[in-house]
Amino acid sequence: MKITPIDIIHQKFGHAFRGYNEKEVDDFLDEVLKSFEEITEENNHLKEKITILEERLGHFQNLEESLQKAILTAQKTADELLENKKREAEILIKNASLQTKEILEEEKTEIKKLKEEIEALKKRRDGFILEFKNLLKINLDFLEESKLSRLEKD
Asked: How far is CA 80 from CA 13, 75, 92, 141, in A?
């Protein structure tokens, strides 16, 4: 049975021959009542505090759970982003490699063309030199003949 402050106030004791001093019992009951009320009040206050703390704990647990979910989501997003960036980098490297190969092939082709043009120009130069030598020879021969013919005339 749970005793309340009201039970203490209304508690009556019977009289007996050689019983306790009523004033001392009443004074003691007043002290017990006062202590009981303080303890009951403190108990109620502590229960309220426990309720508030449990609510706050629940709030913090929910907050912790939300933060953990947010962290997991952020980590997953970061991992996906990193993976996407790696794939993009690989694609860029492959494209750069292909472009480099294309440029090298174009340059090799251009060099080959230039070498062919240089060879063609050398041949033309050599042909021109040969023609020029022949023309000079013809002119020298002509001059020699002219000189001889003048000498013969004189």
From this structure: 81, 8, 18, 89
Contact 25, 13 (CB under 8 A): yes
- Whole-model pTM? 0.47
Q: How far apart, in whole angstroms, are the C-alpha atoms of residue 85 and residue 88?
A: 5
Asked if 62 contacts 30 with a C-beta cutoff of 8 angstroms, the reply is: no
Phi-psi region of 18 (alpha: psi -120 to 50; beta: other; left: phi over 0): left
Q: Hey, how many other C-beta atoms are within 10 angstroms of the C-beta on 5?
A: 15
Residue 98: in which H helix or E strand, if any?
helix 22-153
Residue-wise pLDDT for 49-103, tens only, equals 999 999 999 999 999 999 999 999 999 999 999 999 999 999 999 999 999 999 9
In the block, tokens 């704990």 appear at 57
